[in-house]
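User: Can you recover a sequence for this backbone? Please restate the input before giving your answer.

Assistant: Of course. Working from this structure:
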């Protein structure tokens, strides 16, 4: 419950068709097991009290009465249980028979939700036995208590107001306009689907896509609990394919043809943050819904769900390669359009032998290929200075020549020394003036060379540097088109690695791999014994941590304490809690203090869900205070 996480479960119990006593016993046992695992919302399959495959036995009084009595048994079993339980059963209400979900909390039946869409095609014959609940808005008496019966019920948690649960049953999800659409527009953040979906070849993949897609479209959590292989196999087989999804991501799924529990944590706060951001996510029909409150104890939910240490980078290699190619094409097409618009066939780019300038050059080459332009129109300038090492210089030269760009070498040493003399700066004083003087000299050279050749300057700086303000104002901060502006450092590394793996040129790949092995550095301080002396991550912190903080702050709107907690899960083996906290504090200080550099960024393409363009994704005052964010971290330690 803490930080918006609620642990949920989808359960497929073993059952015996029409053996209500046995089924009820198994349901109660699974409730106990799920609760022992910390689950707070527990969903069972459709008609699980009787079994979905009873067929005309549903018309028997003995089954009808037994199911109603069994519901009371299940409710009574939950009196001391801190969870919301949802079970399926057949229920007669005023002489009409419905396929329903019963919602139970602490021994009380809170509501009955009847199924709206009854399949009566192919192997399904539900309309033979049940009525649609589409227009049912009534109550029924169960154990002397009046219980609402309605498809438009939202169950609201008192201790966690953002947890609002609504129900749909099986076929309801498969129709053109599922009830869950209205449920979520009325405020529901979590949908539970009680299902009995039989298995045929190819259906499990479609089912997974359906649940995932619905959770994405509705920006919600989704629990899908389905009947298993102990249902009747007279004509079809049920697989117990349970799925838990959150806003398009499948967090957990069961093995086919099995019984048991799957569980994970849904991030309800993330769901609400996404909805706040989407101004097109409009509320509708809220007055038509009845809000039913329930109680859950507020607990510090431990996390079992996967927390990626590199949220900008897909974990699966196949997905990563697809993503890398997409990003390179977005970057290249952005530059292509700019060159076409201004009628430009030449560009100028500074090459340092580092990751960012390497990626920018690769993107530029790709853009030239899209335009059918010769690579000689790419004027690649290496500008050795006081901190340039033999390794990075060599990589710069080899990279430029491997790609067929026009090579130019312009040393900045003489010009910077003259500049220091002009402003009265001691060249032995290696302070910020010493460093930034070099960065600005390089930018001046690039701008002037661009004028010489009739081209534009391609920016190389990345998203992570902009987030931290790790850029020299009016130095490497400035360009005429910034191709890496929304690519974080962790992703830059994968993009260069992907290019090395797929370029088909062993010489180029060798250079790219050596660039990947080189420490990230602006090389503005003299080397020691020929080795880079200024390592960026020693000064501002590990980029993988900063990218993690950035993602969860901007993409999810998460509070600093929650981000710290997630980082401890993600980097448990890499960094101590004290180190994570130290660098998170520095991240917030720099992010707020350096925003003025982001307020005047050059144009550049957005490639992912997180970007800092002042004209698009991030509009914040340059003098906003970080005090509220830092206070939360100070309270941690």
């Amino acid at each position: 419950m803490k930080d918006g996480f609620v642990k949920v479960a989808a359960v497929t119990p073993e059952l015996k068709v029409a053996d209500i006593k046995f089924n009820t016993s198994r349901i109660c046992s699974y409730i106990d097991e799920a609760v022992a695992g910390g689950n707070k919302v527990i969903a069972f399959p459709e008609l699980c009290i009787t079994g979905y495959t009873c067929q005309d036995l549903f018309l028997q009084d003995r089954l009808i009465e037994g199911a109603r009595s069994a519901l009371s048994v299940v409710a009574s079993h939950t009196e001391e249980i801190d969870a919301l339980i949802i079970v399926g059963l057949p229920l007669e209400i005023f002489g009409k028979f419905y396929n329903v979900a019963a919602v139970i909390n602490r021994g009380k039946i809170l509501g009955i939700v009847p199924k709206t869409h009854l399949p009566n095609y192919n192997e399904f014959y539900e309309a033979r036995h049940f009525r649609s609940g589409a227009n049912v808005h009534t109550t029924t008496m169960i154990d002397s208590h009046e219980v609402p019966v309605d498809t438009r019920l939202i169950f609201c948690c008192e201790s966690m107001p953002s947890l609002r649960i609504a129900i749909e049953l099986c076929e309801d999800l498969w129709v053109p306009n599922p009830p869950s659409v209205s449920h979520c527009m009325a405020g529901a953040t979590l949908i539970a689907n009680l299902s009995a979906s039989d298995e045929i070849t190819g259906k499990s993949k479609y089912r997974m896509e359906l649940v995932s897609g619905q959770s994405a479209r509705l920006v919600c959590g989704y629990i899908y609990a389905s009947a298993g292989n102990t249902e009747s196999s007279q004509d079809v087989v049920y697989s117990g394919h349970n799925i838990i999804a959150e806003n398009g991501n499948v967090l957990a799924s069961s093995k086919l043809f099995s019984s048991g529990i799957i569980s994970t944590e849904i991030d309800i706060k993330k769901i609400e943050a996404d909805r706040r951001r989407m101004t097109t996510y409009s509320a509708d029909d809220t007055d038509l819904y009845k809000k039913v409150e329930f109680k859950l104890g507020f607990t510090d939910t431990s996390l079992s769900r996967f927390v990626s240490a590199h949220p900008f980078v897909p974990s699966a290699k196949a997905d990563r390669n697809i993503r890398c190619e997409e990003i390179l094409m977005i970057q290249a097409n952005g530059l292509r359009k700019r060159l076409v618009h201004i009628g430009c066939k030449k560009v100028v780019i500074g090459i340092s032998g580092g990751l960012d300038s390497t990626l920018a050059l690769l993107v530029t080459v790709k853009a030239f290929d899209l335009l059918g332009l010769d690579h000689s129109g790419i004027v690649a300038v290496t500008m050795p200075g006081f901190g340039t090492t033999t390794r990075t210089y060599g990589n710069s030269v080899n990279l430029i020549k491997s790609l067929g760009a026009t090579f130019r070498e312009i040393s900045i040493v003489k010009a910077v020394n003259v500049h220091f003399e002009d402003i009265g700066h001691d060249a032995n004083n290696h302070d910020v003036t010493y460093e930034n003087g070099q960065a600005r000299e390089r930018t001046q050279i690039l701008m002037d060379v661009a004028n010489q050749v009739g081209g534009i300057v391609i920016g190389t700086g990345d998203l992570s540097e902009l987030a931290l303000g790790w850029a020299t104002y009016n130095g490497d901060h400035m360009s005429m088109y910034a191709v890496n502006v929304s690519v974080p450092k962790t992703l830059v590394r994968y993009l260069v690695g992907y290019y090395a793996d797929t370029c088909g040129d062993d010489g180029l790949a060798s250079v790219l791999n050596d660039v990947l092995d080189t420490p990230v550095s602006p090389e503005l301080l003299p080397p020691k014994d020929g080795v880079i002396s200024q390592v960026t991550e020693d000064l501002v912190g590990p980029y993988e941590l900063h990218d993690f903080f950035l993602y969860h702050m901007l993409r999810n709107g998460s509070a600093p304490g929650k981000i710290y907690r997630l980082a401890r899960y993600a980097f448990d083996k890499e960094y101590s809690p004290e180190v994570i906290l130290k660098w998170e504090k520095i991240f917030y200080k720099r992010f707020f203090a350096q925003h003025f550099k982001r307020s005047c960024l050059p144009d550049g393409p957005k490639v992912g869900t997180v970007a800092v363009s002042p004209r698009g994704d991030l509009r914040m005052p340059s003098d906003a205070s970080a005090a509220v964010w830092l206070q939360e971290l100070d309270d941690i330690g």
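That completes the design. The chain has two domains: 2-294, 317-636.
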